[in-house]
Amino acid sequence: MQYxxxxxxxxxxxxxPVLLAMLSGCFRSAPAGSEVPQNGGPSPTxxxxxxxxxxxxxxxxxxxxxxxxxxxxxxxxxxxAAFATAxxxxxxxxxxxxxxxxxxxxxxxxxxxxxxxPANLPASRVTGRPRATYPVxxxxxxxxxxxxxxxxxxxxADVKGxxxxxxxxxxxxxx
Length: 175
Prior knowledge:
By secondary structure, the chain is α+β, with helices and mostly antiparallel strands. It has helices at residues 5-11, 16-23, 76-87, 94-101, 107-112, and strands at residues 45-46, 49-50, 131-137, 140-147, 150-159, 162-172.
């Protein structure tokens, strides 16, 4: 199935392998010298083409965010789940869909979502709870959320005491 440029930009925006390679030091819990898996795989693709979207906001807090309060770690998963529920609504018109996802995202990512046509989204409902794919610490994390057609990956960051989505990706079932 061919997806439009808007969906490629929104769904592929996360570029998880690139982001994780950049942030791998933030998530290491093993002592130095122990084996840490490296991402040596191919670039993410959607519809047979290499995704070339602008990377999302980085995971975690930056210097300007350190000024504000810290969001409780326990609220990261519900924030990711709320985004997934708002995202997986292909029956909405673009304006109503955007109205639902925008307040859950950092401004830069919300701006990228303006190009999405919800009718082209690959999933229509969330079917399970979020599962942390990377530990939620240092102000950031990532969750895998099952849907009716695959897994939605949602990256979140603590921004001034609130968990906001910095990017997402989608893995089709069976891939």
